[in-house]
Every structure is written in structure tokens, then in C-alpha cells.
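Hi team,

Filling in the usual template for the complex we talked about on Friday. All components are listed, including any nucleic acid strands or ligand strings, so the model treats them as one assembly.

SUBMITTER: L.P.
PURPOSE: interface mapping
COMPONENTS: two
RESIDUES: 365
SEQUENCES:
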Amino acid sequence: MAEQVGTWLYAVVPDGVAAPDADGVAGVGGGPVRLVRHARVAAVVGAVDLPGDRPLQKYLEDPAWLEPAARAHHRVVAAYFRAGPIVPFRLATVYRDDQRIREVLGENGPDLEAALGTVAGRAEWGVQAHPLAARSPLAARPGPAPPTVTGPPRPGTEYLLGRRDQQSSREAARQELAAAGLRIHRQLAEAAVAARRHTTTAGRSRRVVLNASYLVDRGRRADFVRTVERLDQQHPGLRLRVTGPWPAYSFVAIGPEPA
Amino acid sequence: MRREPAQPQARAGSPGGALARPEPANLADVLERVLDKGVVIAGDIRVNLVDIELLTIRIRLLVASVDRAREMGIDWWERDPMLSSQAAGRPRVAADGGPGPDGDHG
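RESULT (copied from the run log):
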């Protein structure tokens, strides 16, 4: 079986960083991590073996591989996060060898240094809001009786009319929730240095009112959490969930914003 | 920079059983960040980012408990032929209880 070996790039940190928490931390696949220094920054890297002839894509599509890999990637990033500023890279950024890592650092040095400056002394906080099941206007309204015939739907006029009424009231409720989400987001953004709403997962679940990340100065952490608590109390029909502090995954865009 | 507590939710607590407090991150929180965020510079091994993002959504639903997912109104996975069999047999790949956001004691 062929083995593909590459250098996994976890993150970039300032050159000369001391990260005692990172001593002995296991990277993706269980191997050690180390630093590659170049252009006044240091890349946190580790060798990764991909046994067999499956391309990396196939590994990523395998939840049994992806879950420990994602946890290991985050574990390494988090260990350096506790020591100072860090610019995390997306999972599965893999190069042929250390020389390629140095080239990437050289090509992106100024951008990476700027990103390190942006996140220094700050952390990301995640906030999600969703309606409490019992109080949700969406949950309170039963839908029309489904067609009694199983298999492909064979809707009658009555079913369609009921469905239309239900859809318009659902639409009104949806707009109300969206407005609440926007209100909450704006107030949280005021307590933060930067804010970003996530679309990937929230866009697929019908009742996630808000899913966003906020970049918060370390000294304003308590203010931010208090703001979340206040907003939670002001919106009794919603549940707000806050997670953090995170490395600033959501605030380290390099180069042009993706479309 | 000081070390953050591993379980920041312990500091919470507002009257009336307020629900807003830092919670431990679950696998879905981690995946959302490591797959969708971070610096995107192409590596030497190319991967299809669109497929990975779709996978994030699917795994997010697998890692949340089924009850929690339904509470949040997420149930479309039950009709996803690729997932329904896995989801039925493996509802809790890793519900809350993974490493905290700062990765302590994963």
C-alpha cells in the first residue's frame, strides 16, 4: 500500500513564541507538532500519513477519520492559543514538505503578521439563538393533516389551501424571528471588535435564529457575556447559547474575501 | 496571556434560570470552525471545499442528539438517504462533552 506523507499546517504564530501547553500535544494522526520559522512568523506543522491510496478528499468524507482529525487540529490550535496570538488555518491544509511551508510563509508574511495583530489580545465567542420549543410560534401551530395515502403525496385542494395558510403564518413567524436575530446580532456586535454571522449550518436549519461569532477584547469578556445574558432575558421565547473563548477562527481571512 | 478556565460556563448564572452562559463546545462547534473558517490558502493536496462544507452540515446533525436536533426543528436528515441509516444507529457520535473551546482535556 502506498503511503502519502505531507506536512499539515495547523496555524501561524509569532516567531519566538513559547507555548508550554503545546509540549507533547498530539497532532492529526497522533504525531508530534513542531514549528517551521520563516519571515518573522512560525508555522505550527506536523507530518501526516495517509495510509493506502485514498486521496485526502476521501479521508475528509469519512466521519470516522474526520472527527478525530478535527479534534486534533483544534487541540493543537488551542494549545498555542493559550500562549498568545494565533492564526489558525483551515483543516486539511497540507503541503509536500517544509520548504513549501516556508514558501507559503514568505508569500503571505505581511498578511499573516497583520492577521496576528488583529487577533492579539482577543478571542472569538460563538452565540447561537433558537426558539424555545414550547414558546415557538412555529411549534405551536400544527400543520395540516398529511395525506392519508403513503408514498408520493397526492394533495387535494383542501390540503393545499390549509398548507398555504400555514405557510403564510409560518412566513410571518419566520420574519419575526429573523428580525429578533438581527437585533441581537447588532447589539452583540457593539460589544465586540468584529462580528460575523455563519451561514453554513444556520442556513439549513429552519429555526436557528442566529449563529454568529464575535471577536472580543480579552478585557471586555465579562461585558460581552453579560450582554448575552441580558439579551437572553429580553427575549423569553429564545434560548441564547454562548461558547468561548475560541481561537479567532472566524476572523483571520487572508487576501480577498471569498465570494 | 492568561490561561482561560476549561469550563467557562461555571462562571455564569443570572437570576431566573437564564440560559445564556458559556457552554462547553461540542464537536459541531469545532467542526464549524475548523472546516469552514480559518485561513484558506490552497495546499499542495487539493480538496473540494464545497463537499467539505456540505459534510459539516451533515455531521453537525449527527453529533447533536436526536432530541436536541428535533428541539431545534432540525429533522430533514431523517429524509436524507445517505444519513438516515447511520443516524438511526448512531445518534450520539459526540454530544456535548468534547473538549472545551480552548481545547482543555480533550
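MY TAKE: Chain A touches chain B through 82 residues (CB under 8 Å). The two ends of chain A are 40 Å apart (CA to CA).

Thanks, L.
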